[in-house]
Every structure is written in structure tokens, then in C-alpha cells.
Amino acid sequence: MRRMRGAALVAVAMTGVLTLASCAKDSGGDTSTGGGDGPCVTAADPPKVSSSQSRSREQEDVDASDLRVGLAYDVGGRGDASYNDAAAAGVDRAKAQLGVKDTTESTAAGKESEDAKRQRLNQMAQQGYDPIIAVGFAYADAVKAIAPKYPRTRFAIVDDDSVDAPNVTALVFAEEQGSFLAGVAAVYKSQNCHIGFVGGVDTPLIAKFEAGYVQGARAVSDKVTIERDYLTPAGDISGFNDPGKGNVVAKSQIDRGADVLYHAAGASGRGVFEAAKAEGVLAIGVDSDQYRQKTVAHVKDVIMTSMLKRVDVAVYDYIKAVARDDLSSLPERFDLAVEGVGYATSGGKIDDIEPILRAYKKQIVDGDIEVATTVAN
């Protein structure tokens, strides 16, 4: 597996391999919908299924106007066009549909201390906010330290289930399942049979995105080449908020021949999209439907789809469950079966292959395909 190696990788990105770059531009630069069975696909198409219907969500009169909701963002905060914006959308929906009136938000800095995270949560609890939602696994230690001090305050943490406390709810996802479908889509749309993955921070969580993507790609092609790089090592969460570095790494992958890039890098994904735009290749967004995000509107024409991680749904459902005083309605994990992950169709670039994606989705939901959470190299 490739990992970013400082100056060496930057040098590659700066100089490039011009022949491969030209190949990527010439054969993979068409940002139209392209053909269905691309030159990379070696597996037979799975049996078609009827159009999937979204799970009907319970419509009931829930009044959350008495709740005071605290939202502690991960690095990048509201406006990252990805993970944090999805959480923000969940709270915004709770305001509009459940009557939540009093909210507060605070954002983590790139390299802040554990004390800073604890102070953020502690301040919200002291001010009487309940529930408090910590957006991201980086808050695990802080939630573990603060939640016991406020046993009557309800806490939720996104992307971590390590905190064992009666007043803490884990909101976790099957990122690998949605990423599997992204890998399938990438192969069907690649003209070079060469795709890429850009992870923000090298952690087990982001490795789930990589694992699903690689497995999905290899499920439909036995000849695909997959570039894989991380922007920062574990412990340095700046990889989620460095579009410049995202651009450099994406450009390097394109120079090596990749013509479809999937990022799981938060706000750094903007740099991936900009590199794809400049080089005339396609990209896959993450978390939110990034084709519709205003902060990346200038590059939306290269976004062929996004792997939807419905943090917005999880946050909204959690607030609704708290308002009802019944957390038992929440799923153990937000997966494909409960529409907790999925893919976006905005822009029409995957319309021709959506029947194939639906078929693979059904196989995963039915248990015919088990998606791994770690990469088998």
C-alpha cells in the first residue's frame, strides 16, 4: 500500500510523469456519463433488480423545542462541504422539523490538545446544553472524560463506539459498504483502468473507506490499478483540512495514470476536486452529496457521484430519539440496509450504471457480499 512520503511525493507531484498525465487527460478526461461496460470491467454484470425505494421514515409529531443542542465539530467545521456539513444539516433539519430553537456550535482546531476538546464539551455541558453531539472519533477521549461528570446530560459521538457510559450514544456507519459501490462505479467509468483513493488521515476509520473501495473495484475488474495515499499519519488530523496537500497528492495520482479519484479527506477533498478539474479526470465525493455543495460548486462538473455517509440522518434521528426519550429506535449501525450509507446521483453521470450499483447494493444487503473493513493487499 502506498503512503505519502514527504518530499519524495511532493517532488513526484511537481514534476509528474508527463506521458501518463497526457494519457489520463486524453483517455479519461471526458466528464460526460461515458459508456456502461467500460474497458476496465472484467466481471459479468450482476442480476438486475428493480429501482430501490428509500425506507419510509416514521412521520410523527415530535416536539424538540425544549432541547438545547450542542454540536462540537471536527476540524474543518461547518462549511467543509463534507463530514461536518452533514452533521450541521442534521441539526438544521431538527430546527426546521422538530422545533429545536437553542443550539451552539464549536469547531476543533487542526492540531489542538485533548484539553481543548474536553474544555469544549465541558463548557457546553456547564451551559446546560443537552444533548451534546461530538462529531468525530477524535472526541472519544474527551467524551470518555466529560460524560461521567454530567450523568444527566446526554452525549452522542459520531464514528466511535469505544465509550461505554449510560449517557453516551455511538453513531457509527458501514462506510465500507458505501465505498464498495464507489469502487464499482469508479471501474465502470475509468478509461485507463487506473483509479485512485486519497485518505485524509491514516486511521482505522478511513481505512474502512479504502477497504470497501478497493474490494468493490476488484470485484468488477481483475486488471484495475489502484493508487492509494494518505495526507497525514494517525494523530495528525490536519489531513482533513488541507486542500493544498489534497491537490498535490491527487495530481501525483493523476500523473501516474489514475482517471477516477475517490477521496475520504474532509475539507481536503476540495483540493482533490480541483486537481481533477485541472487535469480533466473524474472524482468521487464523500459524506455529503458534494455535487450540490456550494463551497465546491466551481468544480462540481467532475464529481461523478459521492459516497453518502448519512451523518445528517444519524444526527437528526438521534435528536428526535432524545426528544421522545427513547434511544432504542436507533440502529446499531447506519448501513446500506437502513440507508445510512449510499451514493448520490446528482449530475447524471452514473445514470447508465445505476442498475448495476443497485444490484450490488442488494447483494450486500442480502448478505451475499460481505464487505471487509481492512484492505487485503
Automatic annotation (TrEMBL):
<feature type="domain" description="ABC transporter substrate-binding protein PnrA-like">
    <location>
        <begin position="73"/>
        <end position="342"/>
    </location>
</feature>
<protein>
    <submittedName>
        <fullName>Putative ABC-type transport system, periplasmic component/surface lipoprotein</fullName>
    </submittedName>
</protein>
<dbReference type="GO" id="GO:0005886">
    <property type="term" value="C:plasma membrane"/>
</dbReference>
<keyword id="KW-1003">Cell membrane</keyword>
<comment type="similarity">
    <text>Belongs to the BMP lipoprotein family.</text>
</comment>
<dbReference type="InterPro" id="IPR003760">
    <property type="entry name" value="PnrA-like"/>
</dbReference>
<feature type="signal peptide">
    <location>
        <begin position="1"/>
        <end position="24"/>
    </location>
</feature>
<dbReference type="Pfam" id="PF02608">
    <property type="entry name" value="Bmp"/>
</dbReference>
<keyword id="KW-0732">Signal</keyword>
<dbReference type="InterPro" id="IPR028082">
    <property type="entry name" value="Peripla_BP_I"/>
</dbReference>
<keyword id="KW-0449">Lipoprotein</keyword>
<dbReference type="InterPro" id="IPR050957">
    <property type="entry name" value="BMP_lipoprotein"/>
</dbReference>
<feature type="region of interest" description="Disordered">
    <location>
        <begin position="27"/>
        <end position="65"/>
    </location>
</feature>
<keyword id="KW-0472">Membrane</keyword>
